[in-house]
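Format notes (please read before filing issues)

Several people have asked whether sequences and structure tokens are stored in separate files. They are not. Every record keeps both together, in the order shown below: the sequence lines, then the token lines. Line labels are part of the format and must not be stripped during preprocessing.
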Amino acid sequence: MIQEVYARIIVSEMALQESLVLNTINLLESGATIPFIARYRKEMTGSMDETVIAAIRDRLSKLKELDARRAAIIKSLTEQEKLTPELREAVEKATTMADLEDVYLPYKPKRKTRASVARERGLEPLAGMILSQRYDDIQARASKFIDESKGVATVEDAIRGACDIIAEIISEDGYTRKRIRSLFQRESKIVSKVVKGKDQEGINFEMYFDYVEPLNRAPSHRILAMFRGENEGFLRLSVEVEEAHGFEIVEKIFVKGNNASSELVKAAAGDSCKRLLFPSIETEMRQWAKEKADREAIRVFVENLRQLLLAPPLGRKNVLAIDPGFRTGCKVVCLDRQGKLIHNETIYPHPPQNEVKESIHKLKTLVNAYKIEAIAIGNGTAGRETERLVRSVAFDRDLIALVVNESGASVYSASAAARKEFPDYDVTVRGSVSIGRRLMDPLAELVKIDPKSIGVGQYQHDVDQNLLMKSLDDTVVSCVNRVGVEVNTASEELLTYVSGVGPSLAKNIISYRDESGPFRSRTDFRKVARFGDKAFEQAAGFLRIHDAENLLDRSAVHPESYHIVDRMVRTLSCTLTDLITNAELRGKIHPEDFVDERVGLPTLNDIMAELAKPGRDPRQQFEIFEFDKTVHSINDLKKGMILPGIVTNITNFGAFVDIGVHQDGLVHVSQLADRFVRDPNDVVKLNQKVMVEVLDVDPARKRIQLSMKGVQNKT
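Then the structure lines:
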């Protein structure tokens, strides 16, 4: 069984238990999602987390790709009538794509080469004689291959053609390629030079105009920067090793004697290295470095996105949201506790209109009329000025005013989803709604926006876009299902990411809700078109109904486990409400008493934790934050200032912090802590509130250098 073969390979690489890996593979192959497997099939996987399950899925995909390529190569070799038992064995034993391609390379159909021309001229036997290095009279032997009709006019022509064949043989030898590949991986350097005449136009890449760094130690952001410079035509890149070292390796493999033939083999080896082998491996190394840099950049992006999606929600509040602006005014919307738009208009408190009194009166009127509990202010143009205005108003009721990161709101406001929800409103109103809802529930709102538009990536347009989208999609799915979704208020976009749902079923859920009213219980899901047994199994535990009569329908307990809770209730002769609200009663439950052939302690422990806090939101509690009231623009900054800030983006080289001056400052990785920091994510998290010291300010270039080292001791 092929799954068992794959399981054994994965076990050898990941040090996992074979039966658990096989179970995981079978679950994935049956269509189970990663969140479902991680949450509801812990007995089958040994409680693997989503990261491990995703690694198994991705390795399984690579193994399938390898086998598909293996089958294609065997088919090609068979059609060429070159598939010997030895060659088949070599193909079958190849464990990596590089090894497989090395085996196939000598037989791979290729365009016309100097070696193929020499073979057409009948010089392959001569190449074999020279390569054997048994003959010293090679001139005489070469003379027998002179044939002007084939283009071989002289002995030199014959030897030259034979050496071209030898050079290609050397460059396609699997063992040789492996040795040179290893040399490049260990010792190669990436070399960057400015393209002649592009030094002014490409000034942004100045640090790479004459740059050398060991390839295996170059961080992802520098690799991607150099590739971007090359793609834009400003840099010329190469991956180089010490040629003499490479020549020595190849010569030791192929030069076996000390005669005229050996000298020709040595010359052919040098030609092969320079013309064929080194350029071929250099291409591989460029691809290897790019893929490695892509994976690291995507890892950073994914971690940032996860933190952003799981940012603490304010919760269900009546919110007034403002999308600030100067000339065009501030777009104001009022949202009810479900995020429904109930009012919108525009105020003009800033230049050139300066309608300050009118704007303050309007804000006070709206706050009272709609019982506003919080004000969300976008952090874009005029954000700090609007925040200052709002905080100056003496409202008649207690409320909080907060600045909200509006990255991506404009993208959402112009999207098809926004047009569908608000067909009668323009983009400015939609953008304000997005800002307000983002305060109420970041996850529910951000899933409507392409993650690449949220502003937390690193060289996101330079990396492998397919891998990026797959990784970002995995992250959104993970976050949505970790939090759970209220089915009666969720948007179509949010429902799409629920385990087992997807776009089509999400539409059907919305249609059912619109036509039949809110869901009353999880059993109602089966009334939705195409919501079959498989979808119910995968989705039901992640879809919540907050006002359901059955309290378990409000929780993360899966319907397949309701009978276990029923047994607990019967054992204690109490009600479900008693079991949930009475910790003393729950303490009388011994989970091991409820273990059966399908349900083990991991699931039972999860059930007990859920009964203690049904539907508990795993996100942290919301914290109120304010920028320094004395700082509003970059010109207000002075070296040595200690200021509060919010982490807005994290990269390999540091963290960007918003300190309220419309330009994020950089805390270089060397300034994050008093200790050595390898990964900035070990020190800070996205949206974290931090204190920073201003190290340097360059208003002309809009650059702010910040530090977190020892700041706590200075405050």
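For reference, the curators noted about this record: The longest helix spans residues 260-309. The radius of gyration is 33 Å.
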